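Review box. Two proteins, two foldings.
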Amino acid sequence: MENIENTTAEIEQSLTLAPAAPDKIYTIVDIAGDMYAFDSRCVLEILKFVELSRPERLPSHIAGLFEYDGKMISIVDIKSVLNLERKPYDENSMIVILKVDNNIFGVAVNRVTDIQRADIVNLQPVPYNSSHNFIECIYNGENMRCGVLNLNSISSWVLGHPDDSDCANGFDLVTKDPVSVEILHKRKLEYLEKTNKNPYTMFSDKDEFVSFFVGENRYCLKMNDIRGFYKLQETKMIKVPCTPDFILGLVNIKGDFICVIDIKNYFHSQNVPYSGSGTIIVLNSDEFKIGILADAVSDNIQIKPDEIRLLKKQEGKSELTQYVKDGEIYLIISVPDMLSNDKLFIR
């Protein structure tokens, strides 16, 4: 994309836009019977509850330690942090592994209930003042209301908070029933065996995808491959000369110039003029600033990894595979393969 980068300076002089407001993707969890939300960009993995280690007396808000990706991390009893009713954890509870800045830790929750895309107009400030600011805002959606956790504040508190000897111990909430203990121990061994063979990969039962329409085709992107959603009508598209037809142009989003791709043209050589509306799905890449223009964003779906492995490659392209569910055909885009394609590099 050499020509695009050379044109950026000229565009910056002629284009001044207010940052577009993205939708946000949240992981919704049940903590002691109440609903809370994590920013999904910070979620590395969701695990069924496993056996935790406790080599010495730990701070009361730490339920135990767990070996994740070859490193011991803390598993936080979030009930202690939020001062909630201390309902116990059992073999049906879950652990959400988070990465906040450079701090990786787990949070014990009773359930992970959903992954939802939230319109920012439904995010409201908390109606009180707090010294901790553990809740950054309230998500007041059509079908659900929950507190959005401020993961930066929680991460800082977990790292810097001393032991509270007067507080109940988070480890006491972990089930001690012999049958459950055996189940948790077995899960821990299974996880360690998997990670030793293939470190730092997702081992959840199902992977979450976002589906969207471009024309009559329905495509899917893995949730972790998405950085954000932005309304096209809230930006201004600038066409860049001497670029392939599948590059619609550049848009300014939060000070970054994003190259917007027409995937119908990219994958199928179908050149259909865009209407001026739609949603730009910005891909999650530190190296490339690329977005895909979608006519409409649809439902989130879960696809098992073994279902993807059996898929047939479409038109000889490694970036595109096919998945069929309930009579609907989904074209799954492999973002790593797409970003490594020489086709995106202009010489």
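Next protein.
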Amino acid sequence: MDIQHLVDRLEDLIDEGRHLFGTKFTMVDEERALEIIDQMRISVPEEIEKAARTIQLRDRVLAEANEEAARIVQQARQHSEDLIDEQEMVKQAKVRAEYVIEQAKIEAEKITREADDYVMVQLSQLEQQFVHTLDEIRNGIQIMQYEEPIAVEVEPQQQSVEVDHNDAGQEAINFERPAQAPAASRV
């Protein structure tokens, strides 16, 4: 499935979510969001495989161009050897062979440039899609982390809950205080 389509589906899911009155927060169907994210994980290797196929195509075109150049060079050499008896014809054959070789090199370089340009465009588009998807995921995570908590009656021994994260940069979640957005993101 196309990664851009999945990003659009995730965006639609957020748009369809229930907006919390008086806040900038939206509640979304977690199961559907996780399903879309799982599909994105599957789709990303497909996009990478598509880029790899493009690189293989470029390599095949370059190999064919090199084979053609070698064939042309061989033909030019054979032709020049056949005409070695007549000096003027030998000179013309050498000039022609050098011209053909130069033309083959120019054509091979042109094909290489075009293939490289195509691969760069494809990889740039893939990078933009990944950046956009990552931004969407981060925004969704940030929204989910800073939603106001729903009032729930809790027994005294359960009032403080900490979640252990392996990431050293993240602090434990404390449910005793109301959730607040970071100072930089407050409006």
